[in-house]
Amino acid sequence: MSTTDKQLRVGMVGYAFMGAAHSQAWRTVNRVYDLPARARMALICGRDTGKVADAADRLGWEAYTTDWRDLISRDDIDVVDVCTPGDSHAEIALAALAAGKHVLCEKPLANTVAEARAMAAAAATAQAAGVRSMCGFNYRRVPAVTMMRQLVAEGRLGVIRHVRATYLQDWIVDPQFPLVWRLQRDRAGSGALGDIGAHIIDLTQFVTGQLITGVSAVTETFVKERPLPAGSSGLAATVDGAGSADGNGSAPATGPVTVDDAAVFVARLGGGALATYEATRFATGRKNALRVEINGSLGSVVFDLERLNELEFYDATRPTTEQGFTRILVTEGDHPYMSAWWPPGHIIGYEHSFTHQMRDFIEAVATGADPAPSFADALQVQLVLEAVTRSADLGSSWTEVEPALATVAA
Amino acid sequence: MSTTDKQLRVGMVGYAFMGAAHSQAWRTVNRVYDLPARARMALICGRDTGKVADAADRLGWEAYTTDWRDLISRDDIDVVDVCTPGDSHAEIALAALAAGKHVLCEKPLANTVAEARAMAAAAATAQAAGVRSMCGFNYRRVPAVTMMRQLVAEGRLGVIRHVRATYLQDWIVDPQFPLVWRLQRDRAGSGALGDIGAHIIDLTQFVTGQLITGVSAVTETFVKERPLPAGSSGLAATVDGAGSADGNGSAPATGPVTVDDAAVFVARLGGGALATYEATRFATGRKNALRVEINGSLGSVVFDLERLNELEFYDATRPTTEQGFTRILVTEGDHPYMSAWWPPGHIIGYEHSFTHQMRDFIEAVATGADPAPSFADALQVQLVLEAVTRSADLGSSWTEVEPALATVAA
Amino acid sequence: MSTTDKQLRVGMVGYAFMGAAHSQAWRTVNRVYDLPARARMALICGRDTGKVADAADRLGWEAYTTDWRDLISRDDIDVVDVCTPGDSHAEIALAALAAGKHVLCEKPLANTVAEARAMAAAAATAQAAGVRSMCGFNYRRVPAVTMMRQLVAEGRLGVIRHVRATYLQDWIVDPQFPLVWRLQRDRAGSGALGDIGAHIIDLTQFVTGQLITGVSAVTETFVKERPLPAGSSGLAATVDGAGSADGNGSAPATGPVTVDDAAVFVARLGGGALATYEATRFATGRKNALRVEINGSLGSVVFDLERLNELEFYDATRPTTEQGFTRILVTEGDHPYMSAWWPPGHIIGYEHSFTHQMRDFIEAVATGADPAPSFADALQVQLVLEAVTRSADLGSSWTEVEPALATVAA
Amino acid sequence: MSTTDKQLRVGMVGYAFMGAAHSQAWRTVNRVYDLPARARMALICGRDTGKVADAADRLGWEAYTTDWRDLISRDDIDVVDVCTPGDSHAEIALAALAAGKHVLCEKPLANTVAEARAMAAAAATAQAAGVRSMCGFNYRRVPAVTMMRQLVAEGRLGVIRHVRATYLQDWIVDPQFPLVWRLQRDRAGSGALGDIGAHIIDLTQFVTGQLITGVSAVTETFVKERPLPAGSSGLAATVDGAGSADGNGSAPATGPVTVDDAAVFVARLGGGALATYEATRFATGRKNALRVEINGSLGSVVFDLERLNELEFYDATRPTTEQGFTRILVTEGDHPYMSAWWPPGHIIGYEHSFTHQMRDFIEAVATGADPAPSFADALQVQLVLEAVTRSADLGSSWTEVEPALATVAA
């Protein structure tokens, strides 16, 4: 814990899967890193009084409120952490910025390009007044991912020729899995594309330092009608038998799935590389399989989120007979973010990426620097998502990504 | 060895990489399988007298000739095995079929759809006269691949949702690698697309039992000009210093690369699955990395040619807590083709796929059955390649594959 | 967080590697599990005032003291958590039990059998008075390890024939690595044997439900003299240049390594299995490589701590052609301990084993049950360590393990 | 094929599993390697006329005989290849050497030390007369194994600290598997120990260049009585129902298993390394799992026979953050033995190790060099086996290996 007395009082909106992950990170970050400010878990916000009160108690927040406008209006909150579904990101984040709060907003930044554009503009305005903002592409902070970026930046891969990115899940393979909010366009914006495709877009752009310039895409909804849900938590859910059409539970009411189940696209990066992307929730047996391979003229790297402590690195400048993919266990003290944790070989988990994200966010805010990825970076991802959707609508025709002002600086 | 005295006298055209692989298979097949006919390595053909004489001696052929028309015209040849570059497949195979010879032709069947169409027609005509023909997509006969097809056919994967196929090599990453015949359109037809892309097209159609109906594609030639070659063997080659522009070796003459270095495309299969394909020679560190993953509603399979004795199978009908990808070592006596080889766990290699191919070819010819894949099957692959090229030329627009009469029966 | 108001006020002795890991667990456990009592991080104890004050602040303890006797004598402490080096375990734990405190003691339980015997006796006495005690073999609570035990208990492996256990590290391969406390017999009791060998002894006995009955052993100290240390943290350390013999830093003072660098032994388990064990700090490239394979008449399991979210299970009752090692990602909600964490495929890390340990400890104490492993269980491990040492001293002669009253109940 | 006309006329005794593997190698070796002599498959010998005639035809031998003394006495045989069970090795090899034939003898060299000693002496005598002999430890010629030896010899591993060798199979886990000759001491000499343990003893001594000096061992026979066999092939066999006690098939006659099912031992190598060995036929799920790991002060290597085209190499002299186990695909043209085969990434199989063995044997014989491993080398392995047996008999007491005159030169 830092010797500083400087505090950042955090107000978090949302308490589901992301809210739990962020809470774990806020709770831990100052315990393992020595930072110029301490995060205080001051206030949590949710619409249901009973549930938010319980969440505050369970997750360790000092107080709760049911009105996010109340949270934003309070003087004793420095940071607003937006963990709600995508349809409310813009409204909350814009209000928070306007109120002079630093904002950490979950990805995807918004459900539409228009919203994202407004948010990026507001962030730029706020930035001039010393207000910081950041979008929560937490996988940038997996040590192996940060290390990939460093290898590319140091030229260890040479000219990048290929990017191969897949994010595969299987939680809705069963046609009886209910119509949760993530399967509804008005809540989630899109399906696999925005939820997990956004992650691999950001991650590959971050690692390569190159932006996607154009795409050719196909999207698919395999199961077009699903039972209405009773309740859900994380990525699990139950069907509401009581909601059945005839009232006796034999045939639950159904509704249309309005988002993509899967999105695949070919892309070109600014530096000339050819890239393929696939995001799907129908890859049976793949639970959280974000996998990226990058081939350059001098070497290659491979990353798999289900083995996030490992990085495979192929160095083509080594003697021919000794070349091969080296499985680096990214747990050494001199690997990114790892000095704070355990001895080599003692692995970390998914949640640590959030702790690392909070670490960088706190440091940036406390020292007056701009954290990355910015809202402008996140807008650029949104523009890629939009180009994918447009290409899919136009028979996969090659579609240029509208330029944003984003960079991919760390 | 069979107790039969029936012989199949084989005449093989070509003696390079494929010629060596086929020779090893013809030499071995009757030693390990009990078949209704014995292959006799009767005659080998190549244009250079010295080289073909040496090849005959080294590879174990009884005689040699420098004229493939001579080979075809001889009465004591039953089977013509075409192992030349793609630009001569059609002429040789058509002549052989016309002469009543059974034909085994290496893939891709031809360099153009027109040639392939003529060959398929000729094969159909010849078939009526009891003449058999087959295209050499040898990977169908890797035991793990055959097993994948069986699992799909038995319904173990349920409805197929995704196919993910890559064939990655890296032998021309170096811009100084010379302009061998495989990099010239007039000899090879196409680059990575026809050479290795054809393999994953055939393999995935074979395994799923579904044909590709449409594609959206991008192709790329990263290195557009290369030194002229001095000599090559297999996939290795040397640059001809003597061919340098100024005659003193300081700047070798170069020529344009007229084929693709990489081809990526999204496809749909007849049964509704979404598929991605990538064939490239620029994937640093990937030597012969044919990898296929298929996700169905009830399970998934994964195959990697660099570990061709293994098959990963995910069975989603198992109890939840015990589900996972099972690494099956496909070396049991009751696995396809394996009863002839060694005890379990004693692995086989790349060349065995050719021995298995010869086994099935000999059996079909000797029993009067039609071997698969037929020329019609191979024409259908050619039509997919053609659709890929067309889509790439048309800004990746979705392009239907012209229907052929092919089936994907085993 | 539980709705209970019941508290367990914890006093922890020690604040180094284990202290940090335990702190992370105490801080997290009630945030993710709903338990019948809440742990309060009441008091931390260390000898150096400045360091323990800093640790209290950094790790989040309410107060600190420099005298462990003070900690034990306080009425407002319910649980004593012993995280010191092995030479002080007995004294502290005995005093704590005598004072009626529940005790959680790090492994190995003690440095000698005599001490361990006294502790087990004291624990038995205290237990009659409702005082609970537990030894910190945290790896039992890795979900994949717990699942291994369940599979064995359910008979899924049949009769166990082989156990193969290695715990490989490499942090002292460099002969210049200094003589830290873990390399001194009077502080650590033994070297690799007690530090990491104890883990695999406990883990395999726990999983198989069988005790080791006899051993044949060899131990080795490869580097017999090392520089004296300046400071250390976790498993890292620096050499004290100022401590050099001549005072000018050119030749640091050295001292004898009095523990084993490596210990290997063959063992028999009560149920007839043949087992091999290896613990070493000289396995270059192996950082924290605890690996266990168990072969039974009906199946096998394999576990690797560096991939602790995975379990490989071979089920020999499956059809022959489909048998293989199934890589189970132990991250489903119905896997042990996992309902509290993230969706499937979102992996956990090393530290979670401590959180799970605290979960079971709190539950046991709060409900008046006896947590496992008990001090008696840990004494039994100590008796195995002692038999290993004796066998090594007697030219590897087969040496029976002295029976304890331990069981291997969960 | 070499331009040479020099022939080596081979007479092979035995035609079962090893006979088939050797035949494949003799048939192939001159087709892929350019050697100073050509092997001719002149004569095969077996006791059963019908079976050996069939084998000659199937495997491609020019002639057959049922009397090995006849084979040895013929003038037109240059090489005697001994592929029989171990109980006849000595008699045949001694006679062949006496007759001036070069001898290739399968491992283990003999069933007893006395026999092996006589054979080594005879080989030394014969060697003075220009007669060559070699023992068939074929795994030395797996390219990855040869490469391991080279890495050690070049000092890339530094001082070797640990060797970890296991050879795990599971073909007799079923108690109803019959009592084949490999389970009878008078035929096989020993069980897992001599059959597969001998391989890992030779392999590790070959790779490290160090001999085992002493051992502490345990052996075990888990299933002590088995049904009598009807027939066997390779490692498979059937039970003879007709051999049942009462003649109606309900209870087949059984016999005692007189060899070990498993053997485990700890050893020390001449250079100071600590080594563990395990050979078993009871490791459910492990088919042919010869796995070796060697840890040195500068690096480590790992080899797995079920993935014999791969070698994992850890180079501890690389930068800390980039260290890891590099999976080298040992299929490059400049890897040992690989220039003769296919392009990189096109894997080879189990049988290729025999082809490589024949390559080296032919070259040595044709050029008047001594092939390795010699009979003296094989005697030394026998002495290790004998020490293992002795230690197991003496309660695992440390037992020195009797020195032989063996070296471990390649």
UniProtKB/TrEMBL annotation, chains A, B, C, D:
Superkingdom of the organism of origin: Bacteria
InterPro entries from the UniProt entry: Gfo/Idh/MocA-like_OxRdtase_N (IPR000683), Gfo/Idh/MocA_oxidrdct_glycsds (IPR050463), GFO_IDH_MocA-like_dom (IPR055170), NAD(P)-bd_dom_sf (IPR036291)
Domain Gfo/Idh/MocA-like oxidoreductase N-terminal stretches: 8-127
GO terms, molecular function: nucleotide binding; oxidoreductase activity
Cross-referenced Pfam families: GFO_IDH_MocA, GFO_IDH_MocA_C3
GFO/IDH/MocA-like oxidoreductase domain boundaries: 147-301
Listed name of the protein: Gfo/Idh/MocA family oxidoreductase
